[in-house]
């Protein structure tokens, strides 16, 4: 479908020229941290040409030894069919604002940022009136570690990818656009693609990801954590895995989704207070009811 799309004018979007300036399949990656490095490795292994930009020159030079084909310079940007923004929200927006006029007609820009409202609002505005597309994306995979050294080619294998298409497209144009994204990313090995709005994404992600990081990070602040060795097993390991995090990045993500995250924290505090009240009162019936309800809800949401 991608090859057919290149040869026609999409009704509500920019024209994809018959002889595009970009090299079909070539990818530019902005930022070689955990996400960008993993995309670069997967795409390179899958036979894609990968060009990259990174603020730290040493990291770029390391990646160019065996993963990156070249530097994403002003001259290379127009040759990329796909550009992936893998930095923090503000850095990604800043890069796109600066380089917007260098991106080729018909090319696609996506991002990997963990919030969607702030970046989609700004990046859709940057793309408006220009002959290329921006699609908001969030790969649902990662690790507690950060940096290129921890990136790996199978990071996203069978993981979900969430996509937010630009507004104002007719159904055919939107389907063609999302199909091109999937085809360009096929070497990465995502297990499924989910299409949503930026608003719904941020509402759900505040619960499924951000709240988990807050709880884990707060949990290890107990004085008891210092003496856990010899007394802990899977429960402690699972609950504390994401306590280790990139503080500057998560601060930006939390504040960009502050309304949704604050609401989820409030719900959790209310629920925890019920457990504390039952335990303080030594009320076995109330405590058992709370535990049974939690067990029931877990089985319900997992479809068991």
UniProtKB/TrEMBL annotation:
InterPro entries membership: 6-PGluconate_DH-like_C_sf, NAD(P)-bd_dom_sf, PDH_C, PDH_N, Preph/Arog_dehydrog, Prephen_DH
Leader sequence residues: none
Keywords: Oxidoreductase
UniProt domain Prephenate/arogenate dehydrogenase: residue ranges: 25-304
Keyword Oxidoreductase: yes
Name of a matching Pfam family: PDH_N
Keyword Nuclease: no
Gene3D superfamilies in alphabetical order: 6-phosphogluconate dehydrogenase C-terminal like domain, NAD(P)-binding Rossmann-like Domain
Domain of life: Bacteria
Family: Belongs to the prephenate/arogenate dehydrogenase family.
UniProt protein name: Prephenate dehydrogenase
């Amino acid at each position: 479908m991608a090859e057919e799309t290149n040869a026609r004018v999409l009704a509500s979007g920019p024209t994809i020229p018959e002889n595009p300036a970009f090299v079909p399949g070539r990818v530019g990656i902005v930022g070689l941290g955990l996400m960008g490095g993993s995309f670069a490795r997967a795409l390179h292994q899958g036979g894609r040409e990968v060009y990259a930009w990174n603020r730290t020159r040493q990291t770029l030079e390391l990646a160019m030894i065996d993963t990156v084909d070249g530097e994403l310079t002003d001259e290379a940007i127009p040759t990329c069919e796909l550009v992936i923004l893998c930095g923090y929200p503000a850095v990604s927006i800043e890069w796109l604002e600066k380089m917007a006029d260098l991106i080729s007609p018909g090319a696609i820009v996506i991002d990997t940022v963990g919030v969607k409202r702030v970046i989609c609002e700004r990046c859709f505005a940057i793309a408006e009136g220009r002959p290329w597309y921006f699609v908001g994306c969030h790969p649902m995979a990662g690790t507690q570690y950060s940096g290129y050294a921890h990136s790996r080619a199978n990071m996203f294998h069978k993981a979900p990818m969430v996509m937010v298409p630009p507004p104002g497209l007719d159904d055919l144009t939107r389907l063609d656009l999302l199909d091109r994204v999937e085809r360009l990313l096929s070497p990465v090995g995502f297990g499924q693609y989910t299409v949503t709005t930026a608003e719904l994404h941020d509402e759900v992600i505040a619960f499924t990801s951000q709240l988990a990081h807050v709880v884990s990070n707060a949990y290890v602040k107990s004085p008891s954590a210092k003496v856990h060795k010899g007394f802990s097993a899977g429960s402690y390991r699972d609950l504390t895995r994401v306590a280790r995090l990139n503080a500057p990045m998560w601060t930006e993500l939390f504040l960009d989704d502050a309304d949704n995250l604050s609401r989820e924290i409030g719900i959790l505090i209310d629920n925890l207070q019920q457990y504390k009240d039952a335990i303080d009162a030594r009320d076995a019936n109330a405590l058992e009811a709370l535990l049974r309800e939690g067990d029931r809800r877990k089985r319900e949401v997992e479809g068991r």
